[in-house]
Amino acid sequence: MLNEQSIRQLLSRVLDRQQTVEEAVCALRVLPFEDLGHAKLDHHRVLRRGHPEVIYCAGKSAQQVAEIARSLAAQSARVLGTRATSEQFEAAKQLVPQMQYDPCARALWLDREPNAPRIGGVALVAAGTSDIPVAQEAAITLELFGQTPTKIYDVGVAGLQRVLMQVPVLQSAHVVIVVAGMEGALPSVVAGLVSAPVIAVPTSIGYGASFGGLAALLGMLNSCSPGISVVNIDNGFGAAYQAAVINSAIVRARQSASVGSNGDGVDR
Where are the alpha helices (DSSP H) in the chain? Predict the structure, then answer.
């Protein structure tokens, strides 16, 4: 597996003469990328960003997705493919038997470390049941990126009491993802109730004048509630990636402060 820990171990073995330089070069040959002909896989990304490259499956053939998944699985304990079809999943599973698929989220994934520690702090809110597929894409992404999201579904503004009942949970979150279609008002409501950053995800849910999510997108971009960032229409993955980066940074900072405070709140 190509990650910081494995590379440190590899270099230590070379230093201790347990492995030759040539063997180390062979192990690192796929850095910074591996050329499959139809795709150049960025195995180096996990070292730069902390997470491996993700497969955007739309527009790719089933065989292309399968080959990419196999190569990523050879270098990483976790693999994620978004906008995947069942045919692409079946092809990938032939090459990577541990591969899993969520038809609601249209995501295929591999997780060889299901019991690895995960952190809380991300609240994932969906306005309506019709928005759940996009929210589920975000949920799977968060889980593979080391997060344990708190899911709050079907709390749209048409029944405002539903989201108001969740205020204590929302206010305890480090970052909140809000997924909504139609007029896209829910992120503005949530942002007015919390101090955490809010990531708004417009969905393509709505009648004709919603223009496939454009109305929700514009509504979120024009929100008068501060602290909102907006990703593209139906982009649950992008929102989850941003939330994972924010939450991980917050948790690391708090852990560092706790270690440095020596228990009395004073840094030493």
Answer: 4-15, 21-27, 45-49, 62-75, 86-95, 132-144, 160-164, 167-171, 186-191, 214-221, 236-261
Task: Please provide residue 75's backbone torsions phi and psi, each rounded to the nearest 5 degrees.
Answer: -115, -10
The vertex-213 CA angle with 211 and 215, nearest 5°, equals 70
pTM value? 0.81
pLDDT per position in the chain (268 positions), as tens? 565 667 777 788 888 888 888 777 766 665 666 556 676 656 666 666 667 788 999 999 999 999 999 988 887 888 999 999 999 999 999 999 999 999 999 999 999 888 889 999 999 999 999 999 999 999 999 999 999 999 999 999 889 899 999 999 999 999 999 999 999 999 999 999 999 999 999 999 999 999 999 999 999 999 989 999 999 999 999 999 999 999 999 988 888 887 766 555 444 3
Reference 141, options 242, 40, 246, 49; nearest CA is: 242
Cα 31 to Cα 39: distance, rounded to the nearest angstrom: 14
Q: What is the torsional sign of CA 25, 26, 28, 31?
A: positive
Nearby residues of 207 by Cβ (< 8 Å), 6 or more positions away? none
Long-range CB contacts (< 8 A, 24+ apart) of 56-64? 56/81, 56/82, 56/83, 57/81, 57/82, 57/83, 57/84, 57/85, 57/88, 57/108, 58/83, 60/88, 62/87, 62/88, 62/90, 62/91, 62/92, 63/91, 64/38, 64/39
